[in-house]
Amino acid sequence: MSNVLTLENVKIERDGATTFIILNRPEKRNAMSPQLHIDMCDALDWAEEDDQTKVVVITGAGGNFCAGQDLKLYFRGTEDDPKARARARRAAHAWRWDKLSNFPKPTIAMVHGFCFGGGFTPVIACDFAFAADDAVFGLSEVNWGIIPGGLVAWAVTQVMNYRDAIYYSVSGEQFSGAEAGQMKFVNKSFPLSDLHAQTLAFARKLEIKSPAAVRYTKEAVRSVRGMTQLQAADFLNAKSDALKHVDPEGGRAKAMKQFLDEKSFKPGLGDFKR
Ligand code: COA
To answer: What is the CA(62)–ligand 1 centre distance, in A?
Structure first.
């Protein structure tokens, strides 16, 4: 596809203002090799700067999301090369947590098929997650004698309750997309045949919102989780004031005029006209 970055292990596809970033090693169930991690870093950096991209969807090619770290290329392949291992680990951490969880545009994980081990981290780092009812999730590390490292154990406790986090990480048992929806590991699950359309429909709603308000809102919600009430109140006041000044569209003033003076929209029921 023209007008998008070309990478070895990652595919980028546009659908209007929504950009799909697709882990692309389908024959290996999208297991994450060092090169795939490097490609994902490049893809996210590209999407961040790409003006056409308003929303990013992370998913996997060939009917699966991700089979976790590549045991051959990531683990065995770097065993005797500490520098290569460090490079791979840096890239793995950078895209799956730092870049995704601080991404300035809304991010959605769209999970179908298998999602194992290290594949959990990007699902959690995205703002939203949707799964196919029959997707198969598993913290499989314990099944082959390792722990959910590389931030996985920490990340799961950000979105799972403690009982579920211990249960699934120690038992290595799988759970379905439908169960992931019930336990709120993902926002919602859908029949596989609807997953793409439902994800895109939600992305379309995000596309038309004020980018500055969306960005500041997600930053605010993320940041206050680690704050005391006093810190949060202070931070949120400052952030609200800052938004008035940094929003190039002047959304707040425009929306107030449309509601109070023109009576042309109702904030409770939809978006103002940008
Ligand atoms: N690392 C390296 N290679 C992997 C992989 C992984 N995490 N997951 C799948 N592959 C490879 C397989 O080795 C196989 O390669 P080959 O064709 O060269 O033999 C190919 O992908 C297809 O996998 P296969 O096991 O034949 O497919 P399947 O559909 O029957 O099973 C899984 C898919 C995901 C259930 C199974 O491959 C699996 O359990 N993978 C490991 C998952 C895991 O525990 N990941 C966490 C790592 S921390």
So the answer is: 13
